[in-house]
Amino acid sequence: MSTFEELVAEGSRVPVEGWDFSWFSGRATEERPPWGYARMMADRMAGARRALDLQTGGGEVLSEVTAPPPVLVATEGWAPNAALAQRRLPHAVVVCVREDADLPFPDDSFDLITSRHPVRTRFDEVARVLEPGGTYLSQQVGPGSVRELTDAMMGPQPVGTGRDPARLRDEATACGLDVVDVRAARLRMEFHDVAAVIVFLRKVIWTVPGFTVDRYRDRLRALHDRIEADGAFIAHSTRFLLEARRPA
């Protein structure tokens, strides 16, 4: 069995670019939302003519689409991920755009816009570049996601309302979109060693803002001891699905 220091060293050197979570196999698990976003996205893409995937990460989910539309564009705010996505998506055009920036596309450019776990959703821009009758489909991170891990590292933290489904539904409606579907789920997560915790915190940086191993070593040691005693650290992610259409 690996020691705490060995696990810390391993977790510190794992590459964290992109949104490929295959490294966690056997070390951490997370339930999947019941609606099956990747399948829904692929179904919508198969019937689209011009599609845009916002904040695509390294293109991991978009690369699963087997029948892409004739025109496929993706945006990503972090340049290393954008480069990774372009290599992974040779049939798409990948544009590096900040999450909070205006979209560099003309009005009414796309009949489908998708986004999985966006940092921020500019519904005003979505409504502008979506053509009349077009669809926006997104799976988003909900409020208080993985809060057990955040609290274990930082002490009890307030749960913000910025990712509340009702708030985002209201924002979409205010920008002229018709929200046709909202679903939410709370999903069990298990971390089986502290290396998995470290890689997760290095990768999903908003869980513990400013996380470094040195800064949180004492908390990581306590979490390691807890996992050794209990067999796993249990947390819960929150996810919601939002589908909207621009009126024809």
TrEMBL record:
<dbReference type="GO" id="GO:0032259">
    <property type="term" value="P:methylation"/>
</dbReference>
<keyword id="KW-0808">Transferase</keyword>
<protein>
    <submittedName>
        <fullName>SAM-dependent methyltransferase</fullName>
    </submittedName>
</protein>
<dbReference type="InterPro" id="IPR013216">
    <property type="entry name" value="Methyltransf_11"/>
</dbReference>
<dbReference type="InterPro" id="IPR052939">
    <property type="entry name" value="23S_rRNA_MeTrnsfrase_RlmA"/>
</dbReference>
<dbReference type="Pfam" id="PF08241">
    <property type="entry name" value="Methyltransf_11"/>
</dbReference>
<feature type="domain" description="Methyltransferase type 11">
    <location>
        <begin position="52"/>
        <end position="136"/>
    </location>
</feature>
<dbReference type="GO" id="GO:0008757">
    <property type="term" value="F:S-adenosylmethionine-dependent methyltransferase activity"/>
</dbReference>
<dbReference type="InterPro" id="IPR029063">
    <property type="entry name" value="SAM-dependent_MTases_sf"/>
</dbReference>
<keyword id="KW-0489">Methyltransferase</keyword>
